[in-house]
Amino acid sequence: MLTLGIESSCDETSVAVVKDKFFIRSNIIASQEIHSSFGGVVPELASRAHIKTFPSVLAKSLEKANVSPKQLDLVAVSSEPGLIGSLSVGIHFAQGFADALKKPLIGVNHVEAHIYSAFMSHPDKVTFPALGVVISGAHTALFLVESPTSFKLIGKTRDDAIGETFDKVACILGLPYPGGPAIEKLSTEGDPLAYTFSEGKVPGFEFSFSGLKTAVMYAAKGNNANKKTPNKPMSEQQLKDLAASFQRTVFSSLIKKIPLAAHRWHCKSILLGGGVCNNKYFQNLLNSLMSIPVFFPLKDLCSDNAAMIASLGEALYSNSENQRHMLLRPCTRSSWPQLTA
Question: What number is the average pLDDT over the span 210-223?
């Protein structure tokens, strides 16, 4: 079975062709450089860029996969959650493409696909139930994953996502966007204990990162400062120490709550998803703490991509009782079954 995946939930325009759920024939990703000067994604600019980019990305993906549109069996599109304008561009593009070819269409939850990307990277090794951990620019959440297509929400962030926090702290420190890679690189030569920051104190399996962001701002600019206040004079080593101390603290609540959640719901493995998964400090720390297998996605599947949309889309479609008609599976964040601790 050949599935075309379409992803446009934020600022990556991606089209992929996946065969039989796990064999990636192509996975073309076009990143939008226009947002770097703003220190974050501008929704209107992202939507316009998707409109311009989709036709060429589709053509490249089909060419690399050596597949014609008529050979496709299914179209899967990221339907929620994400930036409304960006999602709309992708959904309408997918609907038009599928309708013209008379192919079935299925909507895929973008966050669930991030977790599924770890499973599709290691399909023969993952055992269920698993703990799903999404750490990305827009999401920080824990899920009970009872099967490759069953997700129940355990807890999520109350404010900023962890990736968003990295971006905002990078802006405070004068580092480029996206902030994650820049902070991680700077932290390698810093002292993670040089600055004392407190992690967000929230009950259960929820998270909070906005207070940490403010604490870093005060450390860089002085007490009672705001984002327009210039930074205090700081040596290169102090900057490295500040980045390392922030990185240690931002992961601390995750490192504490992931093992507790895995034990509470008797999980046999852990599935990670999202761009922050690429952080080597976090990978090493989590692997050293866990007694059950931890599975990270392949590097190309950590960030937003259409291959994970296509793969999960095919898995959902194969479970559908009605495959003869066009499907668009509505799925919102509020529709996840909420577990209680």
Answer: 94
Q: Which long-range contacts (CB under 8 A, 24 or more apart) does 88-96 make?
A: 88/47, 89/8, 89/47, 89/50, 89/51, 89/54, 90/6, 90/7, 90/8, 90/9, 90/50, 90/54, 91/328, 93/6, 93/8, 93/54, 94/6, 95/328
Q: State yes or no: pLDDT of 327 exceeds 80.
A: no
How far is it, in rounded angstroms, from Cα 110 to Cα 81? 6
* Least confident stretch, 36-40, 45-49, 63-67, 234-238: 36-40
Tell me which residue has tokens 């297998």: 293
Res 40: pLDDT: 72
- Output the CA torsion sign for 235, 240, 241, 242: positive
On the CB side of 83, how many CA atoms lie within 13 Å of its CA?
23
Q: Which of 261, 18, 269 is nearest to 124 (CA)?
A: 269
Q: What is the mean pLDDT of the chain?
A: 91
Report whether pLDDT(333) > 50. no
Phi-psi region of 66 (alpha: psi -120 to 50; beta: other; left: phi over 0): left
Measured distance CA(265)–CA(131) in Å, rounded: 8
State mean pLDDT over 78-106.
Answer: 93
Distance CA 195, CA 187 (A): 13
Crossing angle for the helix pair 179-187 and 162-172, to the nearest 10 degrees: 70
Tokens found for residue 182:
């820049």
Nearest to 208 by CA among 243, 257, 158, 273: 158
Q: Give the Cα separation of 244 and 242 in Å (integer).
A: 5
Tell me the average pLDDT across 194-219.
94
- Give 155's strand partners: 142
Give strand pairing partners of 18.
Answer: 3, 24
Structural contact between residues 68 and 62, judged by C-beta atoms closer than 8 angstroms: yes
